């Protein structure tokens, strides 16, 4: 796995507030824990 991006709560604050979530309460629990990864694979010989 190669991490391509790590998401922060500040980047999604407006979206999460619009969904009715208490962003300030959950921020310490989820900040930096969601990421996009690239999986490098090879075809078997």
Q: What attributes does this structure have?
A:
45 residues, alpha+beta, 2 helices, 2 strands, 40% helix, 24% strand
Architecture blueprint of SSEs:
Elements: E1 2-7, H1 9-18, H2 23-30, E2 34-38
Antiparallel strand pairs: 1-2
Explain the overall architecture.
This protein has helices spanning 9-18, 23-30; strands spanning 2-7, 34-38. With 45 residues, it is of the alpha+beta class. The protein has one domain (2-38). A two-stranded antiparallel ribbon has the order 1-2. It is elongated. The model has no long low-confidence stretch (mean pLDDT 87).
What would you say about this model in short?
The chain is of the alpha+beta class and 45 residues long. The protein has 2 helices and 2 strands.
The count of helical stretches stands at 2
Overall body shape: elongated
- The gyration radius over C-alpha positions equals 15 Å
Total number of distinct structural domains: 1
Helix content: 40-55%
Which structural class do the helices and strands define? alpha+beta
Q: Please state how the strands of the largest beta sheet are arranged side by side.
A: 1-2
Number of strands: 2
**What is the makeup of the main sheet?**
2 strands, antiparallel
Overall mean pLDDT stands at: 87
Order of helices and strands: EHHE
Distance between the termini: 21 Å
- Percent in strands: 15-25%
Unreliable segments of 5+ consecutive residues: none
